[in-house]
UniProtKB/TrEMBL annotation:
EC numbers, comma separated: 1.1.1.100
A single GO molecular function term of this UniProt record: 3-oxoacyl-[acyl-carrier-protein] reductase (NADPH) activity
Alphabetized SUPFAM superfamilies for the sequence: NAD(P)-binding Rossmann-fold domains (SSF51735)
InterPro entries referenced in this protein's UniProt entry, alphabetically: KR_dom, NAD(P)-bd_dom_sf, Sc_DH/Rdtase_CS, SDR_fam
UniProt similarity note: Belongs to the short-chain dehydrogenases/reductases (SDR) family.
Keyword Oxidoreductase attached: yes
Listed name of the protein: 3-oxoacyl-ACP reductase FabG
Amino acid sequence: MSGLVEGRAAVVTGAAQGIGLAIATTLHEHGASVVIADRDSDRAEQAAKELGSERVLALGCDVTDEASMERAVHTAAEEFGGLDIHVNNAGITRDASLRKMGVDDFDAVMTVHLRGTWLGVRAASAVMREAGRGSIVNMSSLSGKAGNPGQTNYSAAKAGVVGLTKAAAKELAHKNVRVNAIQPGLIRTAMTEAMPQDVFAQNEAAIPMKRAGEASEVAGAALFLASDLASYMTGSVLEVGGGRLM
């Protein structure tokens, strides 16, 4: 199967590695031109080189900065002739217990995940409204559904992404701009594989499917939401977690 987003233009934030790179790669494989936007511009350039296509562009982007986010969106519109898909994926963690977490750690996570997503939705939707079409995909997490100990900042931010998604979906539906969210569970990435082995195994055992997910499986959900297969879906939250916390 190919060509689900043939001829469309996409921006994916935090796309130089992990889930973001898997999403950018999958969109590209299905025909989209993609801006790989990441704070690490060198790594973004390397990722773009590996995809090896004129339809891929690397761009340094700080999602917490209004001008930087708008530049990513306008670069896609100028280079590729429009913006059809925007994926707000960039994120960080600053885990600690409630007692030990500092205000700076709370603010950093909230700013990247929540303000970053809001800035992305606002910038992308401004272009999409004018075109009368578009799909925005926001990355939440099962942590935002059920909460994780040691992640009061991350869980709060990811729950906020769901509220933001639904509010924006209601505002933009009449312009044929769809806004949906994905809640991944335990996904095998460099970040999760850095967890202590026993903790990873314990988390994996709690999943009904008895395995961690792959970044490509999250990318499949993003591709679906970006494509016309999801043309009558907005304000939805797709769980990609192997049945965990269902």
